[in-house]
Amino acid sequence: MTVFPKTVLIVAGPTAGGKSALALACARKWNGAVINADSMQIYDGLPTLTAHPSEEEKQEIPHKLYGALTPAEQCSAARWCDMALAEIAAAHHQNRLPIMTGGTGFYMKALTEGLSPIPDVPGDIRSRVQEHFEKIGKEAFAKELAEKDPAIAARIDMQNPQRMMRAMEVLQATGKSLSYWQDMEKQGGLDSDMRVVTVVLFPDRERLYARCDKRFAWMLEHGALEEVRDFSAQITAGNVPEDAPLLQALGFTELCDYLAGNLTREEAEELSCRKTRQYAKRQMTWFKNQMPDALFVDAPDEAAVEKIATRLQEITE
Predict the structure, then answer these.
(1) Disulfide engineering: 32 pairs with which of 27, 121, 159, 312, CB 3.0-4.6 Å?
(2) Is-contact 277 212, C-beta < 8 A?
(3) What is the CA radius of gyration of the chain?
């Protein structure tokens, strides 16, 4: 079996695009360990809704950092990076190829390029920003952030509440735009002698949208609604905080609205699928712009694996 020392394979791409299948195929071929790089799958609590690997897949191939944190915890890119570096070292120690896979591009950039030295934000500022967001709503908050910090508004996803609140927190805590800190010399990440192959799964948009719809229907058939009901009960009971990151999982809000009687099941499913497709579209744009030198493949098939094999051979010769 071919061994690639000091090598990391990154399999990125939009939600529902087939990243897990491609990572699994690569792990079978090269004695790999699959390491999660998705900001929702890092948590336990909603494994079906956030598309965790199956128990059979986890038994066949080592899968790391799936459900590694409780819903009450916060996972920054820095924290994920520290955990990922430990798993990469462990995989290499076992002569396995570490395969990072997920849709959170910022995590992968942090791993390969390091992180900006952004100061810690005091808890009272974080709470104040969150309360303000909840009071005025996403649209008004986005407008306010764009007025106060147009530089960061041009960089981040202004539909993502966590990204927007993070930018406002840094602005209030430091008096400087998050973009100021992002432009400083980065720290941490992979060692400079590590060889990295980055693959972006970039399917045809029509096929991707169909996969988004099909996967959400599968989730509903396999217990996603019951997961949401149980998770909501944990929030009501005070066991999970109301600002838990998992509340941002695609489909969670819509299924809660269905359970509360505010939407029909059909309306909840349609709205969830629409938001998933919109999110996948934004991911594709991000990967195209932020990872232009990656190996782009259009399907998780044998042809893609062969292209990856060629790239791995090239960087290890």
Answers:
(1) 27
(2) yes
(3) 20
Residues 190-245 pLDDT 10s:
998 999 999 999 999 999 999 999 999 999 999 999 999 999 999 999 999 988 99
- Among residues 206, 197, 207, which one has the least CA distance to residue 296? 197
Largest CA distance in the chain: 60
Q: Is the distance from CB of 116 to CB of 186 less than 8 angstroms?
A: yes
Domain boundaries, position 137: 123-182
In a domain, 1, yes or no: no
Residues 223 and 87 in one domain: yes
Backbone phi and psi for residue 242, each to the nearest 5 degrees, phi listed first: -70, -15
Q: Is residue 168 part of a domain?
A: yes
- 34 and 91 both lie in a single domain: yes
Neighbours of 275 (CB within 10 A): 17
Cβ contact 64:87 at 8 Å = yes
